[in-house]
Amino acid sequence: MRLNDTTDVALRIMIYGASTGKNLFTIDQIVQAYHLPRSTVMKVVNALTQGHFLTAQRGRSGGLYLARAAADIKIGEVVRHMETDFSLVECMRPTNNCAIVDCCKAISPLAEAKTAFLAVLDRYTIADIALTPIDFGLAV
Q1: N or C: which end of the chain has fewer CB within 10 A?
Q2: 84-137, pLDDT tens digit by residue?
Q3: Residue 46 half-sphere exposure, CB side, CA atoms within 13 Å?
Q4: 8 A C-beta contact, residue 9 and residue 41
Q5: What is the reported pTM?
Q6: CB 33 within 8 A of CB 136
Q7: Helix 5-19 × helix 27-34 angle, to 10°
Q8: What span, in angstroms and rounded, lies between the C-alpha atoms of 101 and 70?
Q9: Widest distance between CA atoms in the chain
């Protein structure tokens, strides 16, 4: 399995958010910390906000913060929200045109592997993968 790039960025944003504790953080801080394009960060932050993983506080002194405690946000939740396609092979897609789908023996192990992959991610939270503020050069 391979996660898409926006999911990778989403997990990094959540790690950064967890490192800030209850302090607000900004899109510009994420851009600087990870050397990512601002437009990408904005897109991912928007998705995380819509998914209720981040909360945005508007205004002059606004910023972002985790919508829930890092220990309450499972990595699997974030991955499921960000990933648009878990169809590992053609027969798992709605547009399946595979000629051997009726007799294929690969579908079951692939489906099991996908389930196991997500089950492992569900065992871990953002708190489990969080870094310290010092890792990001933030004041403690």
Answers
A1: C
A2: 888 778 788 888 888 888 888 888 898 899 999 999 999 999 999 999 988 988
A3: 6
A4: yes
A5: 0.89
A6: yes
A7: 110
A8: 41
A9: 61
Single-letter code of the amino acid located at 89:
V
Residue at 97: amino acid letter: N
Q: What torsion do the CA atoms of 123, 30, 50, 117 make, to the nearest 10 degrees?
A: -30
CATH number for 5-84+125-136: choose from 3.60.15.10, 1.10.10.10, 3.90.1150.10, 1.10.3210.10: 1.10.10.10
Measured CA angle at 7 (ends 58, 50), to 5 deg: 35
Helix (H, G, I), strand (E, B) or coil at 56: strand
Tokens linked to 78: 């974030």
Question: What's the confidence (pLDDT) of residue 14?
Answer: 98
Cβ-contact 75, 64 below 8 angstroms: no
